[in-house]
Amino acid sequence: MTVRLNPYLNFRENAREAMEFYHSVFGGTLELSSYGESGVFNDPAEAEKVMHAMLTGDNGVVLMGSDVPASMESGPNSNISLSGDDDAVLRGWWDKLSDGATIAEQLTKAPWGDTFGMLVDKFGVPWMVNIAGEPQA
């Protein structure tokens, strides 16, 4: 049995663009379905909006998202944290997520010994990246 924590992002109008961007960052497979395809909502103005997107990226990354219908509250997005000890992969993701982002804290050595940075990507989603440092002897 497997249990996973999957971030699920809410968008109002640009879920397709955002998820395609994340696909370019994390690789893997992106599955998208629209409200029109599902028949869940009958508002023709929202038929092309994304009802559900699932990105199964490389290195175990799973990210989901959708466009929230105009009739519903969208709620806030939360920080998404990427962490581990694969410096090259995590720096690569940081570099790609930085495209058009607002950098809250540069990716740099943190007081706790890891490398850490924070940014808000061009879609308004806040990200934290933590690259594990060398263990203390």
TrEMBL record:
Which PANTHER family does its entry note? PROTEIN YJDN, PROTEIN YJDN-RELATED
- Coiled-coil stretches are none
Q: What is the lineage of its organism?
A: Bacteria, Bacillati, Actinomycetota, Actinomycetes, Micrococcales
Recorded protein name is: Glyoxalase/fosfomycin resistance/dioxygenase domain-containing protein
Q: Where is the Glyoxalase/fosfomycin resistance/dioxygenase domain?
A: 6-128
The scientific name of the source species is Arthrobacter psychrolactophilus
Q: Which InterPro entries match?
A: Glyas_Bleomycin-R_OHBP_Dase, Glyas_Fos-R_dOase_dom, PhnB-like
